[in-house]
């Protein structure tokens, strides 16, 4: 839909239509009209408007915090890269139902507007950093895995074949989540003190869980479809076609998704040859029932929970859980310091709104006199930035005892299973993971892939399975262990 439309209540937040018009972006579309660009699958949006708008009054009342509800529109170029072509920055209406005060920024053609464009990009990046940390990282991996892990320990014997399958993917997760509650996501903890949402951080996470999270859409192909970066295509290996051909996360993720799916399906078939064996396994059924009805009790009546009646049902559920615990968490977590440790590149919070001569003429004069200083003063302060850098450095670090996807599960310990067929299936999985890593290395050396290879472009290694200890911007551990 163009212009983009909010789903918030117009009686409270005003007219739902975005302020971005065809006039703002028509000159950036290589001769296409907006409708032609949409029809040709060339326009993309990062839309955090509805995530932040309900909380902006409270965020902006905090000393040293300033935020907008943001939208950013990108054009897919002939080279396969995304070019930002418009940014919308909105504030809450002065009175319920009135139009929202908003600014639309477009790529600059003079020095002053270039500094404004940079500040606009910083606000979009700051909002994106908050959603990344609170929704995609904490909620959609750490938090939603916890009920499945607790229920597995409570409802399944350690000798149960599905417990054995899940065991390496549950390692350290409850411990790291407990530590997060003590010092990261707690009131006045690191997340509240270092990220734009501050004390409403938990509410943003909860609102997404309540209104948007769905277990059946957390697998990679379903998530790519939901986010509009892929379309269904029965001729493709995973049943989807990517709209951005050079999309490193999706390209590499689908390799690991496929390897995990084949491994899980082979393993499940060894123990559950038909629907009757799934339905009559009391431990398995109690595990899944408790995961939903106790662990995800707020959503227990949602119609989208997958059934657990057939071997295919079981394999799909387990593939999603293993994906979330391993590859998805790795993609979200281990690039945080390499990509965000330089704070101006991706500020976790902003301290100033855009300079506006009508709102504050003196501030605007300061901006014109020294735009560089104004930009840096809009970034987090030294204490906030240092704390943030220290935390994301720790989060991005692999421990020396990390266990990675596809590695042997028996090193220095008793065999995880005595079943030779299961061991053979895991050996095939390990070979698939090694092949995926070799493919990723070749892709990173391919100069035709401009989103992962080129001058100043980091190779995309977040889904390369192996890694030495330390901050490496690569490596896929079996579990959420940091």
UniProtKB/TrEMBL annotation:
Pfam families membership: Lipoxygenase
Asked if the Swiss-Prot or TrEMBL record annotates the protein with the keyword Oxidoreductase, the reply is yes
Specify the Lipoxygenase domain's residue ranges. 1-482
Spell out the protein name for this chain: Lipoxygenase
Q: What cofactors does the UniProt entry give for this protein?
A: Fe cation
Identify the pathway. Answer: Lipid metabolism; oxylipin biosynthesis
Matching InterPro entries, A to Z? LipOase, LipOase_C, LipOase_C_sf, LipOase_CS, LipOase_Fe_BS, LipOase_plant
Q: Which GO terms describe its biological process?
A: fatty acid biosynthetic process; lipid oxidation; oxylipin biosynthetic process
What keywords are assigned to this protein? Dioxygenase, Fatty acid biosynthesis, Fatty acid metabolism, Iron, Lipid biosynthesis, Lipid metabolism, Metal-binding, Oxidoreductase, Oxylipin biosynthesis
Which EC numbers characterise this protein's activity in its record?
1.13.11.-
Q: Which GO terms describe its molecular function?
A: metal ion binding; oxidoreductase activity, acting on single donors with incorporation of molecular oxygen, incorporation of two atoms of oxygen
Q: Which organism is it from?
A: Aegilops tauschii subsp. strangulata
Give the protein family. Belongs to the lipoxygenase family.
Q: What does this protein do?
A: Plant lipoxygenase may be involved in a number of diverse aspects of plant physiology including growth and development, pest resistance, and senescence or responses to wounding.
């Amino acid at each position: 839909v163009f212009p983009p439309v909010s789903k918030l209540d117009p009686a409270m937040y005003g007219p739902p239509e975005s302020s971005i018009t065809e006039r703002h972006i028509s000159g950036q579309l290589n001769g296409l009209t907006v409708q032609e660009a949409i029809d040709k699958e060339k326009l993309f949006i990062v839309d955090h408007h509805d995530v932040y708008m309900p909380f902006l009054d409270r965020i902006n009342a905090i000393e040293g915090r300033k935020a907008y509800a943001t939208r950013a529109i990108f054009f897919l170029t002939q080279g396969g890269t995304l070019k930002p072509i418009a940014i919308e920055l909105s504030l809450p209406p002065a009175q319920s139902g009135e139009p929202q005060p908003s600014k639309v920024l477009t790529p600059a053609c003079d020095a002053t507007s270039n500094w404004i464009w940079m500040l606009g990009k910083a606000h979009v990046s700051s909002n994106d950093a908050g959603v990344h940390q609170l929704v995609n990282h904490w909620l959609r991996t750490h938090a939603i895995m916890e009920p499945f892990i607790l229920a597995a320990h409570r409802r399944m014997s350690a000798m149960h074949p599905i417990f054995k399958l899940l065991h390496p993917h549950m390692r350290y997760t409850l411990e790291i989540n407990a530590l997060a509650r003590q010092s990261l996501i707690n009131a006045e903890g690191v997340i509240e003190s270092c990220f734009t949402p501050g004390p409403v951080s938990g509410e943003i996470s909860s609102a997404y869980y309540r209104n948007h999270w769905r277990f059946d859409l957390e697998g990679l192909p379903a998530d790519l479809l939901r986010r509009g970066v892929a379309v269904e295509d029965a001729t493709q290996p995973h049943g989807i076609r990517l709209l951005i051909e050079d999309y490193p996360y999706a390209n590499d993720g689908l390799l690991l998704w496929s390897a995990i799916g084949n491994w899980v399906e082979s393993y499940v078939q060894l123990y559950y040859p038909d629907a009757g064996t799934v339905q009559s396994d009391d431990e398995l059924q109690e595990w899944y029932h408790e995961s939903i009805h106790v662990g995800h009790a707020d959503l227990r009546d949602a119609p989208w929970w997958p059934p657990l009646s057939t071997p295919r049902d079981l394999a799909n559920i387990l593939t999603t859980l293993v994906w979330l615990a391993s590859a998805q968490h790795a993609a979200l977590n281990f690039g945080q310091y390499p990509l965000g440790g330089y704070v101006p590149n991706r500020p976790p919070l902003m301290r100033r709104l855009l300079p506006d001569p009508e709102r504050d003429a003196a501030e605007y004069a300061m901006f014109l006199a020294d735009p560089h200083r104004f930009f840096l003063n809009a970034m987090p302060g030294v204490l906030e930035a240092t704390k943030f850098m220290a935390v994301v450095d720790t989060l991005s670090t692999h421990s020396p005892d990390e266990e990675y996807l596809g590695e042997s599960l028996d090193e220095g310990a008793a065999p995880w299973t005595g079943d030779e067929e299961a061991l053979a299936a895991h050996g095939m999985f390990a070979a698939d993971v090694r092949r995926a890593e070799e493919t990723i290395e070749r892709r990173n050396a391919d100069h035709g892939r401009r989103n992962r290879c080129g001058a100043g472009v980091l190779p995309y290694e977040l889904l390369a399975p192996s890694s030495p200890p330390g901050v490496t911007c690569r490596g896929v551990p079996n579990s959420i262990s940091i």
